[in-house]
Amino acid sequence: MTLARIWTVVSTNWLRESLNSQVNGKVSRKLRVLDTSFLFDPDVDTYKECYKQGHIPQSLHFNMYRCVNRTPERPVNLPDINCFTDYAQELGIWPDTHVITYDRFGPAPAYRTWWLFRTFGHKNISILDGGLRKWLEDGHEVTTEETAVERSNFEAKLDKNLLRSYEDVLENLKSRREQLVDARNPAGDSCTSSENYGGVIPGAKHIVFEQLFTENGTIKSDRELKELFDSAGVDLGQPITASCLRGLTACGVAAAAHILGKEHVPVYAGSWWEYSRRAPDDLKALAKKAS
């Protein structure tokens, strides 16, 4: 089953039908499902604890931290491009492969993976709306069977239109050419001080990541998403850069804008974690607590 247009998100029923349409039940190079589930615990092997316990049929586990050189300023750094190329080849992702990402705990890793592949030139990618939770709620099965795939000829090509650096953000503070949208909650305790990871980049507008989703974890309707952008004072007709704490939830803002027709929304990869450690105090602002 193919799409005339690669949607940002696809439904569980669409994925089930697509998997059922595989010839003789064989894994096709045309479709690759990635379980991006991740636990923020260095002592836990997410692959063993999550993927091997049950996953969507024909899916492979994707570790978004593989190929990442973590630094104090950028703990969620962009992967090394050569390593990412090799990893994608290992996962059997070809230039014409439609990649589907999903998560089981929350949507952030799936949205980050969506952005990663697009940033490395693979635009043929969608997010499973609602993730594994919605998949199970809709009565679809999981499996513990491993998925074997043929190594591909994937070649990562960095799309700089989808990436912003610390230097880019500093320049934008002068030019104000791009609207900076912060996916963190400005009313949260983490944003009440300029110390550590609190505070905001001056001029940032806020679209809170969690507010992009319904109670069951699916993305909100186009109308509701548009209302979020409008209420935040974000003009979808003008350039936008998304930011957050470490570069994860910002990808949700980029995806929401993509759903609304904005093809290129770059993410400040270092986000506040890097900015707060490099920027001078006069280029930091305190977030306003909600009354």
Automatic annotation (TrEMBL):
GO terms for molecular function: thiosulfate-cyanide sulfurtransferase activity. It comes from Dreissena polymorpha. This is Sulfurtransferase. Keywords: Repeat, Transferase. Residues 27-144, 174-284 form the Rhodanese domain. It comes from the Eukaryota. PANTHER family: SULFURTRANSFERASE, THIOSULFATE SULFERTANSFERASE. Gene3D superfamilies: Rhodanese-like domain (3.40.250.10). InterPro entries: Rhodanese-like_dom, Rhodanese-like_dom_sf, Thiosulphate_STrfase_CS, TST/MPST-like. One of its GO terms (cellular component) is mitochondrion. The keyword Transferase applies.
